[in-house]
From TrEMBL, chains A, B:
It catalyses: S-formylglutathione + H2O = formate + glutathione + H(+). This is S-formylglutathione hydrolase. Belongs to the esterase D family. InterPro entries: AB_hydrolase_fold, Esterase-like, S-formylglutathione_hydrol. The keyword Hydrolase applies. The gene is fghA. It comes from Nitrospirillum viridazoti CBAmc. Pfam families: Esterase (PF00756). Serine hydrolase involved in the detoxification of formaldehyde. The lineage of its organism: Bacteria, Pseudomonadati, Pseudomonadota, Alphaproteobacteria, Rhodospirillales. One of its GO terms (biological process) is formaldehyde catabolic process. GO terms for cellular component: cytosol.
Length: 280, 280
């Protein structure tokens, strides 16, 4: 697990790094970013928040535009931001922006042509946590997870299927019911084949209906988000959490869209939500 | 002066907009961004801070990565971010990234092939202020100006040559003496020809030596900036300000580089510097 440092820059008193490694899961080089707050210099292990990105994004979108460093520095949180898929020549792709490279949907694909490299589920739940734990001062007993859109889907499904691993969970405009919306109705059969049971393992609402639980959950959703009604449908999450007794804080943010102008506005609230639970 | 709205997004309680207009100065379409803080909705005119960007940048770099909106929203500041040059087919360019498109150096070029379109001095000092004043609730009696690198050069020279226009002036890692460093020794003769007198009108240290003054000045400079010794040379600014009696707050920021990871860290300090003077 040799880690190559792509870049490091001092920022908000800490270090924003970008790293590359050869992933055994995807069979490709994978790039991710890690922000170490100033507290990381004293040898102590710090709580870590994972941020999973949305369609078309790499690690760079949130690293450049997420405005998370000031709050993370104040709160003493390490923030890790993976890529959204394997990339490069020899990796399958699709002309559409919602399938293939940049659109891994955090699943282990079983179908051609995706199966050889598209193993983002195992990458973000097993391989990358081992790489991060081996190379950075993270306290793996204090992990939180969040994400945006497809990455919100990733964060919620990963948390639901790893009970106890994450002490704090949140999402920005997540895809909560991919089996019921066009993005997921394309991606899940494409990556996983025709068995609806396989899809339900990657559908937040279905996982909750099938018994998975979270301690509590913060979700922000912009009311001017152009994907709100057709792809995101937070009312399905609200109903599932109500039925299951999961305490959901769902905030409909008036006039906000799907962009990082929205995410960056509420990033501090999310990191404070995580810090409160990770430092309790 | 018809203004086309490229995009608007709610952010930090205000509106981040991007606009395009046909510039008479450059003879091209020009794009710029404006952040309106939440206070802009009540009909009052608000103080405005101009941010001039550096080499290779458009309006988008600082708009995406500058982390200025939270502080601007709190302080009630409008932030305007122009492009760094004319662009497009039919506009002269250079294979190098420090000349031509993306590298206008905030001068009115007199030399071929630049003279027809490279009129960034008149654009940022005359045309764009008129466009902004006509279309946004800016109080033109309360203007501040800042910028980064080549844009720091632009901010300082514009402020020095418009005494009284700007109540607050700051810069991030500015080029302060272009006649004494490689970037300027290429750009100034390239755009302005062989007369050293023309260069001195676009050299902060020379302008101060020749009698121009500022009320006071905040400059942040990273010590790990790879351009520090050869291109930026803040010691020349320190000496010029000391000789002229200009109160300069020059902060050497330990370990910071030339990137937006540096700028975003100290953006709040700069906006507070401006707000203190604009709202006095």
């Amino acid at each position: 697990m040799t880690l190559e440092t792509v870049s490091t820059s001092r920022s908000h008193g800490g270090i924003q790094g970008v790293y590359r490694h050869a992933s055994a899961e995807t069979g490709t080089p994978m790039v991710f970013s890690v922000f170490l707050p100033p507290q990381a210099t004293n040898g102590a292990k710090l709580p870590v928040v994972w941020y999973l990105s949305g369609l078309t994004c790499t690690h760079a979108n949130v690293t450049d535009k997420g405005e998370f460093r000031q709050a993370a520095a104040e709160l003493g949180l390490i923030v890790v931001c993976p890529d959204t898929s394997p990339r490069g020549e020899g990796v399958a792709d699709d002309a559409a922006w919602d399938m293939g490279q940049g659109a891994g949907f955090y699943v282990d694909a079983t179908q051609a042509p995706w199966a050889p490299h598209f193993r983002m589920w195992s990458y973000v739940t097993k391989e990358l946590p081992e790489v991060v734990a081996a190379n950075f001062p993270v306290d793996m007993d204090r992990q939180g997870i969040t994400g945006h859109s497809m990455g919100g889907h990733g964060a919620l499904t990963v948390a639901l299927r790893h009970p106890g691993r994450f002490k704090s969970v949140s999402a920005f405009a997540p895809i909560v019911a991919p089996t019921q919306v066009p993005w997921g109705q394309k991606a899940l059969p494409g990556y996983l084949g025709d068995d609806p049971a396989a899809w339900r393992h990657h559908d937040t609402v279905a996982l909750i209906q099938d018994g998975a639980r979270l301690p509590d959950l913060l979700v922000d959703q912009g009311t001017a988000d152009s994907f709100l009604e057709n792809q995101l449908r937070p009312e399905l999450l609200r109903q599932a959490c109500a039925d299951a007794g999961i305490p959901l804080t769902l905030r409909l943010q008036d006039g906000y869209d799907h962009s990082y102008f929205f995410i960056s506005t509420f990033m501090r609230d999310h990191l404070e939500w995580h810090a409160e639970r990770l430092k309790a």
